[in-house]
Amino acid sequence: MVVVVVASVRMKTLLPHPISKAGSLGTRRTDAFDEPLFLVIRQFRGFHESSLCLPSAGRPAAPISGSAQGVRSACLTFKKEMIMLHTRSLIGWVLWIVCFILVLLAGASYAVADENGCQYCGMKKAMFAHSWVTVEREDGSSTGVCSVHCAAIDMALKIDNPAKKILVGDYNTKKPIDAETAYWVVGGNKMGVMTKRAKWAFESKAAADAFVQENGGQPAAFEQVMKAAFEDMYEDILMIQKKRKMMRMKKEGS
């Protein structure tokens, strides 16, 4: 820490040993020298206490040694040191701001990455695009989840924020399609996502019929699919908990 007293001092009024015309200390006053004096009372980090000081009540000003050129040189040196000090301080602030921005960018990157994972189970969209459900709400927000199962959880938790539109991945093409106009198949021999009873969406009726013919299941409307999701919720949650417990035990045992 540096404590600095800056004073504009006129030599003719404050110097007990006036400066002579020749530039050295003399016995008579002169108006030839008029410089601001930067008086350092206490300094750290390489600075030294100055022999210059202001007069105070009951104490005369300390004598000033050296010529006017020496005083001017000391002032310039002090100004340079102060500029360096402020420069270092400015650089420190700039570095702090840069670090803060990097932290914000890292948080933004994490948020973007999190949008590609299910909010409730963490399953990645890249692996479950064929069952991915995106719920767009009336307030402009949207939620991406891995399956109809997690979409049902989301709807129950956000009962005061109704869905405006729901998109679901086509089972074959993985392209997002309107869930309400999609052709759905419930059940079949294909294991569902987060559920024992699978629920798949198809853009065309022909694709849905072909799936049923090959894998079984029942054609259904979107409303029937959501009712089935809530009917299956209890058993599906128990199944998921059991699977995760087994995975933890396997991981701890390895």
What does this structure look like?
The chain is built from five helices and nine strands. It is α+β, with helices and mostly antiparallel strands. Strand 3 and strand 4 form a beta hairpin. The longest helix has 48 residues. The two termini are 57 Å apart.
List keywords for this structure.
disordered N terminus, alpha+beta, 4-stranded antiparallel β-sheet, 254 residues, 19% strand, 2 domains, 41% helix, 5 helices, single chain
Structure, briefly:
The protein has 5 helices and 9 strands, in the order βαβαββαββββαβα. It is an alpha+beta fold and 254 residues long.
Termini, distance in Å? 57 Å
What class, by secondary structure content? Answer: alpha+beta
Instruction: Return the domain count.
Output: 2
- Give a quick account of the main beta sheet: strands, pairing sense, barrel closure: 4 strands, antiparallel
Overall average pLDDT: 76
Total beta strands: 9
Helix content: 40-55%
Count of separate DSSP helical elements: 5
How much of the sequence is in beta strands? Answer: 15-25%
Radius of gyration: 40 Å
Point out poorly predicted stretches.
1-59, 61-65, 108-114
Provide the spatial order of strands within the biggest beta sheet: 4-3-5-6
Q: What general form does the structure show?
A: elongated
What is the N-to-C succession of helices and strands? EHEHEEHEEEEHEH
